[in-house]
Amino acid sequence: MQGDSMWAALLVDRDGQSRAVVERVPVPVPSEGEVLVRMSRAGICGSDVSFALTGKASTSRSPLVLGHEAVGVVVAAGPGDPDDLVGVRVSLLPRVVCARCPGCQRGHTVQCREQTCLGVDRDGAFAEYVVLPAANCLPVPDGLSDELAAVAADAVATAYHAVVGRGRLRSGDRVAIWGVGGLGLSAVGLAKTLGASRIVAVDPRPQARAWALATGADEVLGPADAAAFLADRGGVDIALEFAGRPETAEAAVRALDHGGRAVLVGVGPGSVGAGRLMSLVLRERAVLGSYGSEPFEARAVLELLASGRLELPHLVGDTIGLADVPRGLERVRDGDLSGSRLVVAIS
To answer: Could you tell me which InterPro entries the record lists for this protein (predicted)?
Structure first.
C-alpha cells in the first residue's frame, strides 16, 4: 500500500490563483506514533471554501490536500507502534497538538501554541488515505453513521465546546444563536438536548431557519427582528455567535440578561464593541471567545449522537464523490445544499 498512489483533492496555485483539483498523489507513510487511515467520509466545511474559492483564509502551504472533518478505518500503524487501532473505525480530531506547551500541560489543548490542523497545515482528509497521530483517532460507537461520525469531532464538537465548555449551559437557560450553519445548527440540537428552556435561532436564510426549527429551536428570526424580540422577553442567559460578523457579535452581547454569557465562535474581519462598560460590570455580563474542542468533548458528542439523545436531522445533506469535490466546494459557497453539510464519500 505504502509507495502506491491515491486520489486526493488538493489546493493548488495555478496561474496565480488558488483552486481545488483532484489528482493522484503518493499514499502517505506513517511515522512513529502515527497511523494510516483509509478514509470513508469527509465533510466540506466553510473554511475549505475560504481556502479554495473566496480567498478569505489561506493554508500554510500549497499544494495541500484539503479536508479536516472525517471518518475512516485505521489500516496501519507507524514502525514499532502497537497495532491495537488497526481495523477500528475512527473519527478524526483535526487539530494536532504538541502536548508540551503550557496550554497542553493544563489540559487546554485548544490553546496549544504549536498546533497544526488537517487540511490547513498538513495534508487533510479529501483523499483515499491520510496519516495523523494515533492520539487524534477516536473510535466511533456502533450504530453511528459514517456521515455523522465524519462531522462529529469538528463541527458538532466545536458547538459543544461553545455551548457547554464556554457557555456553561444549565438546564432552564434561555439561549439565542446567531448563524445556524453546521456549527449553529449543532448548537441548537445540543441546547435542546441539554435542557435549554427557550432557543431562538437568528439567520437571514429561510432554509436555515426551517432547519433550526426542525432541530429544536422554539423561535426563528431574521437579524432585523431579533433585537426587539429578545429585549421584549428579557434577554437570554447564553448568546452564541457563529456568523463571524461584528454586527451579529454585538447583537449577541446586547441580548444578554443579567449574568449572561456571550460566546463568540465565528471568525471574520473587523472588531467588536462589547457594549457599555457600566452594563458589562453592573449586570455581570461576560464575553467569551470559543475555539475548537477538547478530545473529551468530541467523545461526549460521539456518545450523544450514537445514543440517539442528540438528533441533528438536517446537519448532513447530499453525498458526493471525491472527484466532485471542486464542484462541491462551489455548491457550499452558493448554498446549493439539502442539509447543512455536504459530505464526500471516499470509500
So the answer is: ADH-like_C, ADH-like_N, ER, GroES-like_sf, NAD(P)-bd_dom_sf, Zn_alcohol_dh
Report pTM.
0.95
Indicate if 299 and 280 belong to the same structural domain. no
Strand partners, 198: 174
Q: How far apart are CA 211 and CA 134, in angstroms?
A: 35
Q: Which residues contact 98 (CB under 8 A, 6 or more apart)?
A: 104, 112, 113, 114, 115
3-state secondary structure at position 175: strand
Q: How many domains does the chain fold into?
A: 2
Coil, helix or strand at residue 125: coil
For residues 219 and 93, membership in a common domain is answered with: no
Which domain covers residue 110, as residue numbers? 5-155+293-345
Do 54 and 146 share a structural domain? yes
pLDDT digits (tens, 9 = 90+) for 147-191: 999 999 999 999 999 999 999 999 999 999 999 999 999 999 999
Domain-located, residue 316:
yes
Average pLDDT in the 316-337 region? 95
Q: Which residue among 289, 319, 335 closes a domain?
A: 289
C-alpha count within 13 angstroms, C-beta hemisphere, residue 107? 3
pLDDT at position 60: 86
Banded pLDDT at 254 (limits 50, 70, 90): very high
The confidence band for 72, taking pLDDT boundaries of 50, 70 and 90, is very high
With cut-offs at 50, 70 and 90, classify the pLDDT of residue 299. very high
Cα–Cα distance for residue pair 305/312, rounded to 1 Å: 8
Shared domain for 283 and 299, answered yes or no, is no
The verdict on residue 163 lying in a domain is no
Q: What CATH number is attached to the domain comprising 341?
A: 3.90.180.10
* DSSP summary character for residue 323: G
DSSP class of residue 19 equals E
CA distances from residue 156 to 187, 209, 228 in whole angstroms, order as listed: 8, 18, 30
Q: Residues near 334 by Cβ (< 8 Å), separated by ≥ 6?
A: none
Sign of the Cα torsion 110, 112, 113, 118 reads: negative
Whether 31 and 150 share a structural domain = yes
